[in-house]
Amino acid sequence: AGMKFFLQYVGCVFAFFSAGFLIISTWTDCWMVNADDSLEVSIKCRGLWWECVTNVFDGIQTCDEYDSIYAEHSVKLVLTRAMMITADILSGLGFLFLVLGLDCVKFLPDEPLIKLRICLASGVMLLLAGLPGITGSVWYAVDVYVERSSLLFHNVFLGIQYKFGWSCWLGMAGSVGCFLSGSLLTCCMYLFRETSSGRFHSAYSLRKGYSSAMTVLTNTHFPSSQTATSKMYAVDTRV
């Protein structure tokens, strides 16, 4: 039981931080950052939804949102948005399911098998969340690196060259965390399935046997004639 609680809590911590990292990564503005920091007087960051410029001297930041979602965008931007939003939804649901499946949470306290299945379902959701998350963030980072390398290889200088920033790293970290928590819940928690099932059936059999014994004991010590006499005595007493 102690090991089971420990695995649940570790998986919950990983799921919490992983979902948070993915959500922060999706809605922050530093997926790409200018690579020539020493030559620039401002830090230029590009995210999935807007682009921001921060002055290195006074710290003033100005942001410009991209065009409408229905406007024409690059395939890299559109697919990364879709994959990261999918990862956010799945990781958030996985974390909520995991909270409901914790033994310390008073939700279905008399149904240990159902709570264990909830933990397994949350593990599957977290594994599914890690797949689009790692695909979107790594693909975005590789595309930025390939674009920058091709420009340097052909000696093309466009004024600003970008490298992938901390938002992209955060997306990778959140995706890896989802894989870790999902693997922990699906693989390790599955080992406790048969144990919990055996305890459940043993408790059910014990309760059933106890109920049957009480029924026999009642029928033995309180025969029908004595029960009828007691009822008549009770009626006379009330009268």
From TrEMBL:
Record organism: Sterrhoptilus dennistouni
GO BP of this protein: monoatomic ion transport; paracellular transport
A molecular function (GO) term: structural molecule activity
Keywords: Cell junction, Cell membrane, Ion transport, Magnesium, Membrane, Tight junction, Transmembrane, Transmembrane helix, Transport
Presence of the UniProt keyword Cell wall biogenesis/degradation in the record: no
Transmembrane regions: 7-27, 120-142, 169-192
Location(s), subcellular: Cell junction, Tight junction; Cell membrane
Role of this protein: Forms paracellular channels: coassembles with CLDN19 into tight junction strands with cation-selective channels through the strands, conveying epithelial permeability in a process known as paracellular tight junction permeability. Involved in the maintenance of ion gradients along the nephron. In the thick ascending limb (TAL) of Henle's loop, facilitates sodium paracellular permeability from the interstitial compartment to the lumen, contributing to the lumen-positive transepithelial potential that drives paracellular magnesium and calcium reabsorption.
Protein name (database record): Claudin
Transmembrane in keyword set: yes
PANTHER family reported in the protein's UniProt record: CLAUDIN
Gene (UniProt): Cldn16_1
Catalytic activity of the protein: Na(+)(in) = Na(+)(out); Ca(2+)(in) = Ca(2+)(out); K(+)(in) = K(+)(out); Rb(+)(in) = Rb(+)(out)
A Pfam family per the record: PMP22_Claudin
Mode of membrane association: Multi-pass membrane protein
First-listed, main subcellular location of the protein, grouped into a coarse class: other
Gene3D superfamilies: 1.20.140.150
Family: Belongs to the claudin family.
